[in-house]
Every structure is written in structure tokens, then in C-alpha cells.
Amino acid sequence: MRTYHDLFRTPEFTPFFLASAGQTAAQAVSGPALGTLIYAETGSPLLSGLAMFGPSFAHVAGATTLLSAADRLPPRAALTGTGLLFALGTALQAVPGLPVWTAFAVLLGLGTIASPVGGVRYGLLNEILTREGYLLGRSLLNLSAGATQICGFAAGGVLVTALSPRGTLLAGAVLYLVSAAVARYGLVRRPARAAGRPSVGETWRNNVRLLSFAPRRRVYLALWVPNGLIVGCESLFIPYAPRHAGFLFAVAAVGMLAGDIAVGRFVPRRWHGRLGTPLCLLLAAPYLLFALHPAPPLAVAAVVLASVGYASNLLLQERLMALTPEELSGHALGLHTSGMLTMQGVGAALAGAVAQHTSPATAMALTATASLAVTLALAGPPRRG
């Protein structure tokens, strides 16, 4: 497979693509709406950031208990069922008078249930396209996610103003339902990739197997930590610029879109091994400008430029798949997703806590500095294992 057009000639890819886009749209619409609702009720940058990225913490529980299900659940049933659960949970968060702690309990429950879904989804992509087409397919999914986030954040901002945060959450619930319907009626019924029942013991054994290999562990850390810290910067967009946060989220998606197009479609394969570290550095460096409280045009330019660095994830995932046995591909990708989302929650919590005692701009600059330090440490010569 050499072009994006080739992907849509592959059976099942189109419904898979549409179901993924529907879920991304639901998240883009409902996430900022919930963050706005929590910030309006509490005035807390920390709680606002956790409302958007806090469910990521629950992936720790899922990654240590449920992740073996990624290769042991029929993909169509798993994707349909989780779409329905997310629709129900998002609708529940829109109930007037719902206590803040209840909203967070729902978020954590959904995060735990969703933990193996990344492995199910991208393991299925690996089956539909084979490993030779995985990078191109994941690149297109990232492009779609970027474009959908641009539209979703913009639409969410309009809906929050025209309706209310609660009305916007209901719109997100409808999008989750649409995504579940596309998965149910568009995907072929497939058996699970691995035999046996999911179990905590099997989850731990596979996690240990994946992380005990030093080169693979290094790739995981590069996928998780720099990315998660920069998401912590993004979690402060609402307290940093409440009236323009939706626009900042949208331009961040524009930058991610541009980076994924460049890396997924145009960068020669021989360069893939050289660009991971520079892109991780690019992901963090522009956020240092926020220490100077830049004017809005400069802040927008910094966010767009930094978000190009998210393309490093494509190259690192390709490396991860090259280091992973076929029978563990779903589990490996699920571990990547769970670890990445967990670190995004950690990043949001750290950035929010710093912002509570300093300011959102200062917290963004300090978090970006930490991301740069981690990237440089991981870029050093590997230790012997």
C-alpha cells in the first residue's frame, strides 16, 4: 500500500475509519464541554484539566487488570459495546445537579472499561491492513482525528455558547451512539486473536514480557512521557484563555494534522529512525514561550508548531510493532494507549497543580521543560540489558 486511496480499497477499512472518526468527534465535543462545566462550578484549573484528561488515570487500573482482553475479545462486539457505554456515561454527566464527584466517578469508570479498547481497535487495524500498511493506515487515522478534532472543538465551542455545556454533552452522547452503530453494522464478525479467557494474571505476564525487553521499554517511555507532559500544557488552555480555549484546541489539531501528513505520507522510510527525537523536542520547545505571556497570534503559532511534533508517535509506533511478536500486537498497542493516556492524566494533574500555585502560563512553560529533559535523557546511548 502506497497511497491513502489504497486503504479504502481494503475491505472493512471504511467502516473502521468511520467508527473511529465518530468516537473522536464525540470526545472532541464532550471533553471541553465537561471541562467548561467543571471550571464554571469550581473555578479550579486542576479540576478543569482533570475533567478533560482525568479518565486517563483509570487506564492504570485497566492496564494492570483488563488489558489481556485486547486480544481475547471479538473486535466488533468490543467496539460496539464500549461505544454504547460511553454514550450512556456522557449522557449521565449532562444530568442537571449532578455532583462533581459523581461526574468524576463516571469518568474513572469509563476510563477503566475503555482501557483495552485501544488494543482491540489498533490490533484490528493491524489485521485489516497487515503490518506493511499499518503506518499508512495509522497516519490516515491520525489525520482524520486531527481534522475531526478541529471541527469537533469548533462545533463544541459553538454548542457550549448556543446551547449549554450540558446540551453539548448530549450531542457527544449521540455521536458515541453513531460510532457504535457503524461498528456493529459495518465491521465483519471476527473471532478473538488469542484463545483463552482474559485474566489479571495473563495481563501481568504479557506486560512483564513486553516491558522486560530494554529496546521496547525505551520506545514505550518515549511514547508515554514527553507526550503526556505536553497534554498537560494543553489541559491549561481553558484557565489560560477561557474565551479562546476552543480555538487553541483547534489549532493544536491543525498542527498535529500537518505533522501526520508530512511523516505518514511524504517522509522517506530511511529517515524514520532519525526523526523521532527531533520531533519529540519540537513537541515541547514552543511551549517555553508561554513563560513570557505571548500575544495571542504568537501563542497560536507556538501551539501549531509544537503540535507538529506529535508525529513522533507514528515513528515510535512503527518501531514498537517491529519489536513485538504478532500474537502480542493487540496487547502491545493497548499497553501503549493505556500508558499514553495515563501519562496524559498525570501531565494534566501536574500542570494543574503547578498552575494552582503559580499561573497557567508558568505551569505550561515548566511542564514543557520537563518534557524536553525526558526526551534528551531517552535520546542518550542505550544501556546494556
Written overview of the protein:
This protein is an all-alpha fold. 77% of the residues lie in helices and 0% in strands. It contains 17 helices and no strands. The protein has helices at residues 4-8, 13-42, 45-53, 58-65, 75-93, 100-114, 117-162, 165-186, 200-211, 214-234, 237-240, 245-266, 272-284, 296-308, 312-322, 329-357, 360-378. The longest helix is centred in the middle third of the chain and has 46 residues, at 117-162. The chain starts with a helix and ends in a 7-residue tail after the last helix.
* Rg value: 20 Å
**Unreliable runs, pLDDT <50, ≥5 residues?**
none
Q: The biggest beta sheet, please?
A: none
Helix and strand run: HHHHHHHHHHHHHHHHH
Taking the alpha carbons of the first and last residues, their distance comes to 36 Å
Question: Key features?
Answer:
about 375 residues; mainly alpha
Quickly describe the structure:
The protein is an all-alpha fold and 385 residues long. It has helices at 4-8, 13-42, 45-53, 58-65, 75-93, 100-114, 117-162, 165-186, 200-211, 214-234, 237-240, 245-266, 272-284, 296-308, 312-322, 329-357, 360-378.
Secondary structure layout:
Elements lengths: L3 H5 L4 H30 L2 H9 L4 H8 L9 H19 L6 H15 L2 H46 L2 H22 L13 H12 L2 H21 L2 H4 L4 H22 L5 H13 L11 H13 L3 H11 L6 H29 L2 H19 L7
Helix pairs in contact: 2-3, 2-7, 2-8, 3-16, 4-6, 4-16, 5-6, 5-7, 5-8, 7-8, 7-12, 7-15, 7-16, 10-15, 10-16, 10-17, 12-14, 13-14, 13-15, 13-17, 16-17
